[in-house]
UniProtKB/TrEMBL annotation:
This is Phosphonate transport system ATP-binding protein. It comes from Kushneria indalinina DSM 14324. NCBIfam families: ABC_phnC (TIGR02315). It holds the Pfam family ABC_tran. GO terms for molecular function: ABC-type phosphonate transporter activity; ATP binding; ATP hydrolysis activity. Residues 2-246 form the ABC transporter domain. It is a peripheral membrane protein. The keyword Transcription regulation does not apply. Residues 248-258 have a biased composition (Acidic residues). GO terms for cellular component: plasma membrane. Residues 248-271 are annotated as: Disordered. InterPro entries: AAA+_ATPase, ABC_transporter-like_ATP-bd, ABC_transporter-like_CS, ABC_transpr_PhnC, MetN_ABC_transporter-like, P-loop_NTPase. It is found in: Cell inner membrane.
């Protein structure tokens, strides 16, 4: 379980990125983090794993306050948090298998990581994860030979190789086509359910989030302005989160309508 209590981030310029953010994510629940650009979504995710230092508040993973840790203690606890990045963050010249095994770097001695000689149980775990994400046949391909969807699956397998207790997922579908986006979101939701993993997904695609996540948290100017079920996110709340907009699907303009077939067109169809 993840618990945030009064999490705040103020930069030296005086700009406030997060203001008293508090919520809890129980095991197995995926929370979609939505809001306009600059609302604090990425800052929130990075404050949880201390890639960005919070100004105030607590981040509790289980019963351990991550904000009080430093040095070896923080490195040990970060192993409990799997991070999946928008731009995949793979080592392009390494194979798929080697990229997945890099998720075990926090658990092996330096000499093993330098020579990329991992214990047999880590290799077996990596094969099982590649099977789970549908990439067994691509294990020996270089990462730069993969499609965007395949790269994201490698990133998921690498995060799971850590055997995490929490997943932080930053815009997992931003660079993907609609079909692949749904496949990736379905894979993430299934994996979190199977492993009883809590997860926070920073996502801009609100319809996609509403389709797959169990709970949405809306941020505006660093504050939580919505926390509830996807079906409770109506037009009024979307306007409150994002600002004034027409949230109805756009009707096709007259210029977009197909032209009336001409006699020549009709003859071509039957010729």
């Amino acid at each position: 379980m993840l618990t945030l209590k009064g999490l705040s981030k103020t930069y030296r310029t005086g700009d406030s990125a997060l203001n008293e953010v508090s919520f809890t994510v129980p095991g197995g629940q995926i929370v979609g983090l939505i809001g306009p650009s600059g609302a604090g979504k990425s800052t929130l995710i990075r404050c949880i794993n201390r890639l960005v230092e919070p100004t105030a508040g607590q981040v509790l993973l289980g019963n351990i306050d991550l904000t009080r840790l430093g040095g070896a203690g923080l490195r040990t606890q970060r192993r409990r948090i799997g991070m999946i990045f928008q731009e995949y963050a793979l080592v392009e010249r390494l194979t798929v298998m080697e990229n997945v095994l890099s998720g075990r770097l926090g658990y092996v001695p330096f000499w093993r990581s330098w020579t990329r000689r991992f214990p047999a149980e880590d290799i077996q775990r990596a094969w099982a994860l590649l099977d789970r994400v549908g990439l067994m046949a691509h294990a020996n391909k270089r990462a730069d030979a993969l499609s965007g969807g395949q790269r994201q699956r490698v990133g998921i397998a690498r995060a799971l190789a850590q055997e995490p207790e929490l997943l932080l997922i930053d815009e997992p579908t931003a660079s993907l086509d609609p079909r692949t986006s749904r496949q990736i979101m379905r894979l993430l939701t299934d994996i979190c359910a199977e492993r009883h993993l809590p997860a926070i997904v920073n996502i801009h695609d609100v319809p996609l989030a509403k389709q797959f996540v169990q709970r949405l948290i809306g941020l505006r100017a660093g504050q939580v302005v919505f926390d509830g079920a996807p079906q409770a996110l109506d037009e009024a709340m979307l306007t409150h989160i994002y600002g004034e907009e027409d949230w109805q699907p756009a009707a096709p303009e007259e210029d977009d309508a197909p032209p009336e077939p001409t006699i020549t067109d009709a003859r071509a169809l039957v010729s």
